[in-house]
Amino acid sequence: MRKWVLSGILASEETYLSHLEALLLPMKPLKAAATTSQPVLTIPQIETIFFKVPELYEIHKEFYDGLLPRVQQWNHHQRVGDLFQKLVRTHGTGESALLYKPVDRVTRNTLVLHDLLKHTPCSHPDYPLLQDALRISQNFLSSINEEITPRRQSMTVKKGENRQLLKDRFMVELVEGARKLRHVFLFTDLLLCAKLKKQMGGKSQQYDCKWYIPLSDLTFQAADESDPPPIPHVPDEEIDALKVKISQIRAEIQREKRANKGAKALERLRKKLSEQESLLLLASPNMGLRVHNRNGKSYMFLISSDYERAEWREVIREQQKKCFKSFSLTSVELQMLTNSCMKLQTVHHIPLSINKEDEESPGLYGFLNVIVHSASGLKQSLNLYCTLEVDSFGYFVNKAKTRVYRYTTEPNWNEEFEIELEGSQTLRLLCYEKCYSKTRLNKEDGESTDRIMGKGQIPLDPQSLQGKDWQRTVVPMNGIEVKLSMKFTSREFSLKRMPSEKQTGVFGVKISAVTKRERSKVPYIVRQCLEEIERRGMEEVGIYRVSGVATDIQALKAAFDANNKDVSVMMSEMDVNAIAGTLKLYFRELPEPLFTDELYSNFAVAVALSDSVAKESCMLNLLLSLPEPNLVTFLFLLDHLKRVAEKESVNKMSLHNLATVFGPTLLRPSEKDSKIPTNPTQPITMSDSWSLEVMSQVQVLLYFLQLETIPTPDSKRQSILFSTEV
């Protein structure tokens, strides 16, 4: 029976070879004519019409020449599986694409292999060879049906097992110090890192495999316990500059859509937007996720969220419990697996706004107040704290952290945080066990670690957050439940400076009134807060950026307003981030910004000047035009911020970071409308307008922070800087 099946294959191959020979006959004269002045066909046309015909002929001729003598000298123990294996493997990945063209040949060979296996005993030496050839042939057939068959969740591997896709995502890989965008696929037995090839000539997208690690060989800890390579950070000013460019291009796209001038201009802007968002996607993550192959190299991914890093580790470790044997893929098997990724993938687009649907929500812009109440469901007493992450411009950022609640099964934090949202759609919550042992190190990351006890996330639904009331919710995470309350204030309302008739207290009162009442040049609240921060907050990571506990900030606000004599004692007992938050709140609630409403638009124009000499002259003249209390307070604060930036290697707060935090706080005008000059005939969305205005405010403060000295006239310097008691 086997001989009969093989005789049919021989006859079919003989016919197929004769057809290929017939195609080869006109190739030589056509190629010769192509080099003359009157070609019948061009060389590219010939290569398209006769695509890979010579190579196909050689492969099938070799198969036919090998099979013919074996069939002619047939006996029961004769082997042919090696010939079929060689045919479907086509001597390596370079020629594997040849089998995609004559699809009927692949289909026929698959049916033949089915028949041969049916009539081959399991004990026959040919059986495993034929089984392997059938598996490869079936996967080829599956690959070419990508466009017309539904997406599969798995592919066939040896011994009839299924390799299923568990998780995939676009990630940034650090390769020899350079950031590369990759698509990472986690299968039931291996982790594969692929690169998306550029589309050429209308062809469908394909992946190129960069590396893979069998899960049985994957570890998060290097065998030699070597220190991880340093992660090169992209400067914050570059990140913010990219965000501003993105906001500007988005604004231009909206204007083009309204003007309805044509598709070409819109397409050009979308291409620019895609380029800038891709750069931001590469530049933003700085948290390392290292994976190691026990038998080879180590690789480093960069992630922006501890939530996501924990997610990858968890799913890999869980799957590793089911993986026991190491293995390696042949070049053809690896090519087939990589080809299958295109239809198995669950994440189809790089996370860029250009890939989002027009009706998709742009997210929330404004401030989200979150109260972290308590947690329940813990099995043992632990030292616990929570962190909050929100997404912004396509990646997640850590925004707040509760205090550590010591040794309990039912922590009651009841801490409130104010989190700024920039197109945010999701709030993530992580619960950690605090590690106080300095000897306990995380060998996976080369730094001290606190164990993640649970994590969860909440979609930020604009509809449910529209009201002014607090929304209570429970976040379940690994058997633990954390209770939260949330309240959202849109940017339109949260950024308004409210006029105040208040004469007592300090918050919401004009700075000139406060300094006159106190008989000082700098308000007492500013001096006290800066003194306490300089005493114990200069090396605090994220000082001024990390949110302080809202209840502590409100307590300090009330104490300063009431002129409480014990305020310094209160401050000494509070978290330093609450003191920093109190200072920011004071400047934010001033009825008029420190840089004044009158001069705000002039500062915005001056900082945009391209001539450096003219810019310096304008900026300094404007600064010295500020009222005396405003100027002295600003210079007092400016010196402090420069000292904070000197500790950047420890506190991670650069001059640009500080300008980003304080720029809007010190300059945001009390008028509801922007003072940044814009074209009134081309309105832009509020979110884009806000981004452009904030960048201008940041640039004004950054300019003064970067000046080594403020060259004021001698008379002004004497009267303001040296003859005053602050």
From TrEMBL:
The keyword Protein transport does not apply. Residues 239-276 form a coiled coil. Residues 164-321 form the PH domain. CDD domains: C2_ABR (cd08686), RhoGAP_Bcr (cd04387). One of its GO terms (molecular function) is guanyl-nucleotide exchange factor activity. It is found in: Cell projection, Axon; Cell projection, Dendritic spine. Residues 1-86, 98-147 form the DH domain. GO terms for biological process: signal transduction. This is BCR activator of RhoGEF and GTPase. It comes from Scleropages formosus (Asian bonytongue). The gene is BCR.
